[in-house]
Amino acid sequence: MKPKLEACGVSYAYHSPEGETPALSHISFSVPTGEFLAVVGPSGCGKSTLLSLLCGLIEPEEGSILIDGVPVGDEHSGIGYMLQKDHLLEWRTIYGNVSLGLEIQKKLNSGACRRLDGMLQSYGLGGFESAHPRELSGGMRQRAALIRTLALKPDLLLLDEPFSALDYQTRLSVCDDISGIIRSTGKTAILITHDLSEAISVADRILVLSHRPGKIKAVLPISFSPEFDSPLKRRNAPEFSAYFNQVWGLLQKEQGS
Fold first, then answer.
1. In terms of CB atoms within 10 Å, which end of the chain has fewer, N or C?
2. Neighbours of 73 (CB within 10 A)
3. % residues pLDDT > 90 (the chain)
């Protein structure tokens, strides 16, 4: 069975009149369907560059990226992208925001509207369809951003620190909510984060990148007992501190190298 995503020997550098700045060097990994992968590494190691490559915004200078065996540049309509900010349009209602992608793609039919209504109810935004983003909390805005992304039925979700703009308490709650939603839909997801606790609490595996140019330093499987079945519960699991120390140790060794 083909992996949902496969990166094969991917390298990328930024070019300017001052010279070349290597960002990523010979990155290879695969993500099976339904897996939640977290990517961590030192600041400036190329994490966001990696997401831009995975969704086809930029092309690798070396190597290839395949989704369902097809090069990402040829067909990437099945990719959903959540950014650090929700980027909701303040002049549109919440319903107008969550339906925007469908509207642009001319897919806002009766079936799509029923699915949107169901997601709004299921994800805690029922009754807020006519509200505007300024009337919602940060957590509610992020749930609206997720509905907007899921409305297009992506097979792969790329999450670029989607909780970083929230206060800590809201961040914990929204991370718990959104990761639960993603797992319940069976989507394949890749999360970029600076927060090691967040990575351990949501991921099936953690990919650790080195200093720039980013290389894969380690890929760590994460497994918890069945009773710890959510990010908040995982943070209280006996295994949590051991995983944290393992990832922290890898990053500390990287700083000392």
1. N
2. 12
3. 54
